[in-house]
Amino acid sequence: MSNTIEAPRSPYTRTPRSSGTRGVNWEKWGWIYMRVSGVVLVVLIFGHLFVNLMVGTGVSALDFAFVGGKWSDPFWKVWDVTMLWLALIHGGNGMRTIVNDYASARLTRGIFKGAILAAVVVLIVLGTLVVFTFDPCPAGSPADLLPSFCPAS
User: Fold this and answer.
1) How many Cβ atoms are within 10 Å of 104's Cβ, its own excluded?
2) Can you give the CATH number for the domain in which 72 is found?
3) I need a surface site. Which of 42, 83, 86, 142 has the fewest CB within 10 A?
4) What does the radius of gyration of the chain's CA atoms come to, in whole angstroms?
5) pTM (2 d.p.)
């Protein structure tokens, strides 16, 4: 009885490297990134959920003031931005792998991967800006529009 391994589903093949050329094996590093970032994300996400839902009065305390107070501490800003970056890059890398597996035309793969890259970059930039420019008490705002924890202007 002979066992054969079927060809992979991926509809394209790469030309093999010549034995003299060396380059970065992006697939290997992408695979390693997925494993490492997954473990780190589990810690970050469960820490985030524990602090937001279990500490203090629980889910009833989640409001604008809670976020404002949390983001006044640089530790939580770095925690949340790290979680944002790792999650978006992890998800983008997973989507890239799916595109490589299922998109058959080279142009289609390029368009999809370009769109994924653009979405990840835009979301990382916007999310990072939100976290680091967040000000719950902007100067010059009418007092009736400010949260109760803001000092009177």
Assistant:
1) 9
2) 1.20.1300.10
3) 142
4) 23
5) 0.78
